[in-house]
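Contributing new records

If you add data, match the layout below exactly. Sequence lines come first and carry their own label; structure lines follow with theirs. Keep one chain per record. Anything else will be rejected by the validation script.
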Amino acid sequence: MGDLALRRDPVTDAAPFSPDAFAALRRHPDFRATVEALARANLAAYAAASPAERWLTSDLGRSALTGAAMILDVLLGGFSTAQIIQSARANRTCSDGRVRLYLRTAVAHGFLEVDPEGTHRATARLYETTARGAQAMLTAVARLDASLAEAEGLAGDLPFRRRLARQVGLNTIARPDLFAGPDMPVLLFLARDGGTRMMEQIIVAQKPGRQALAETARISQRALASGAFVSRTHAARLLADGVTQGLLHVRGAQVTVTPELSEDLERHYALVIEMARVSARAALSGPG
């Protein structure tokens, strides 16, 4: 899977997904700016998407199922309902019933197709829709690892994207421990409809010159709800739950992220960027 190739970082031979690799990413002088840029790009892509396209990634369960569908499609050439249910059980992302509902809805929207034998396959629409997110992530990866600049330019290339999905799948299978921990603070956002978009808005609204990734942002409940395409009541409930859990302090339009939550946000972004970085490198070296 290659070594850690980060410019201006002394740890150039850390094993992929090792503590040293994650620490090196977080020490990179552009790490926080890269996370902010990634958040802005994701928010812009989400705003430009149709309601059906936003549905694919509006919460952790659907995001995980969308990723699993693409990975199983590449690894197996198609997948059964039982196979994607098994994936969801292994990842502890959603119930069996929600998987079945996801499949029916994805087929109805043209993101998946299913043959008479019950084999599901990803459609061109699914790959086209997810290309925007892939572009944002590969741009972030290239910013932190200049040796992957070529990957940034291949986000729209379907053969490369399929190789990338395959490598993400193989790396996820090899390191399931990376995704352990159902009580991680970041799930305050990830587990809710539109929560990731609210998280990203809080990140991009941070003041410059701060000491942590997330400290204090000035953003109204109305703005959070609008940017996440959810109701104001839904946004207010997330903030209230964050206060109850001791992860947020809210006073009017001022939202303060606790050090515990900020630390977990950095851990989360280091993980997803490292997964993309290692997988992109393998995808570049794979067959065309």
